[in-house]
Amino acid sequence: MAYDFDLYVIGAGSGGVRAARFAAGFGARVAVAESRYLGGTCVNVGCVPKKLLVYGAHYAEDFEQASAYGWTAGEASFDWATLIANKDQEINRLNGIYRNLLVNSGVALHEGHAKITGPHEVEINGQRHTAEHILVATGGWPVIPQIPGREHAISSNEAFFLKELPKRVLVVGGGYIAVEFAGIFHGMGAQTSLLYRGELFLRGFDAAVRKHLAEELTRRGLDLQFNADIQRIDKQADGSLEVTLKDGRTLMTDCVFYATGRRPMLDNLGLENTAVALDEKGFVKVNEKYETTEPSILAIGDVIGRVQLTPVALAEGMAVARRLFKPEQYRLVDYRMIPTAVFSLPNIGTVGLTEEQAREEGHEVQIFESRFRPMKLSLTDCQERTLMKLVVDARTDKVLGCHMVGPDAGEIVQGLAIALKAGASKRDFDETIGVHPTAAEEFVTMRTPAA
Q1: Which of 83, 148, 273, 429 is the most buried (most CB within 10 A)?
Q2: Is 340-444 CATH 3.40.190.10?
Q3: What pLDDT, on the 0 to 100 scale, is given for residue 296?
Q4: Measured at the alpha carbon of residue 435, what is the angle toward residues 429 and 440, in degrees to the nearest 5?
Q5: Residue 351 in 3-state DSSP?
Q6: Helix 207-219 × helix 176-187 angle, to 10°
């Protein structure tokens, strides 16, 4: 059968755009459908604008510490509207770049909501197109629990477009999005509380990292309330919100921000017209080649619920394009040793196994750990401390994991991820000469295992 396209991609986020561009570059006839914004969650309501807001929040500290270095400035003030306007301008620029990347690659861009009407057919804007392969890359969507008053809460989607900075904010959740936004609101001057129903946030991260960050956030004045969950939200006559917790307490706030998980965005996608199956959590079920249970339909990125990170979606998109249209370059995506960062204040950078994971996998573990006050703070009154930690296999000397809490943690751990990916040993670290004076050199000077 002759198809209109070799590949029809639904979703112009990071993974979808990468797959489309490279498939077209390999000679395929490709179309991409997008109903919202080019660049997906990351560019529009995710990692890019969030990082810009994190930069904005960090200036409060810089102004405070500058006097120790002899700088005298006028009284600092912050204008939320200016930051949001400049953020919007940058996102619009990136949207244009994504559009040019697609069009210049020879990809047909279809703007509208695409619905799958059969194993090889997509309908959009009243027109039907056939394709040998259909790729679902529709990403995720934030979830707000079904509690009374949920309509008064916001998610990350709305947070980037608030008209003004709330004076009081309750951030609900224990994942990285909750921790990052709590730092953003707090750093910009809002009275901020972070509520999490568990004992300690950032489940799945190394225990030392979790505890250290909790201590540092508390030191900065961020209100952390663990074992706390919301029962209902009631809007008051003055516009403020009364929040009733499950333990009976009530809190007053101006904004309730939920970051309690994301679901795959499959609304009105038409999967019922195919044999595509979902897993028990509602994500699209795929094999190692990203094929669904409908052979002609593939899926990548957040919608498959594996590792929900932009660079992972990019790698998956590249893998699909190569396997279909450039098989001699195809290789499986390696999900081991994926580095990641949490842009909390201070940052987290991590790669490899946590201490807990290493022990669960049966490794005999040696731990190397260092906590120190960054040199930049030595002239100031700030008592913030950095944590660096290496998890080492005592039998093989191989470094299994690397974890950091402190300034520029993500920047530092990216380089170390290459070493761990290459199988570096603790001896390799020890024999590497450090860059002095830097915080990063601490990773190559830790000689004594922790007790």
Answers
A1: 429
A2: no
A3: 98
A4: 65
A5: strand
A6: 20
Backbone torsion region of residue 305, taken as left when φ is above 0, otherwise alpha when ψ lies between -120 and 50, otherwise beta: left
The alpha carbon of residue 425 and the mean position of all alpha carbons in its chain are separated, in whole angstroms, by 29
Mean pLDDT of the chain: 97
Residue with token string 């987290």:
348
Distance linking the first and last C-alpha atoms of the chain: 67
Q: What single letter denotes the amino acid at residue 301?
A: G
Q: How far apart are CA 142 and CA 193, in angstroms?
A: 20
Do 144 and 150 contact (CB within 8 A), yes or no? yes
SS3 content of the chain, % helix, strand, coil (to 5): 35, 25, 40
CATH level 3 topology of 150-260: FAD/NAD(P)-binding domain (3.50.50)
Return the HEC string of 102-127.
HHHCCCEEEECCEEEEECCEEEECCE
Q: Burial of 422 by CB count in 10 Å (0-12 exposed, 13-18 middle, 19+ buried)?
A: exposed
Phi (first) and psi of residue 136, to 5 degrees: -95, 115
User: Do you find a cis peptide bond into 264, omega within 30 degrees of 0?
Assistant: no
| Positions marked active-site | 436
Q: Which residue has the tokens 């930690």?
A: 389
CA atoms within 13 A on the CB side of 240: 10
Question: Mean pLDDT throughout 252-269?
Answer: 97
Pair of tokens at residue 359: 């022990």
Task: Give, in order, the Cα–Cα distances in Å from 158 to each of 49, 79, 152, 221, 248.
Answer: 12, 18, 12, 25, 28
Q: Is the pLDDT of residue 114 over 90?
A: yes
Dmax over Cα atoms in the chain, in whole Å?
A: 74
Q: What is the pLDDT of residue 73?
A: 83
**CATH fourth-level superfamily of 5-141+263-329:** FAD/NAD(P)-binding domain (3.50.50.60)
The CATH 3.50.50.60 domain(s) of the chain lie at 5-141+263-329, 150-260
CA–CA distance, 76 with 27 (Å, rounded to integer): 55
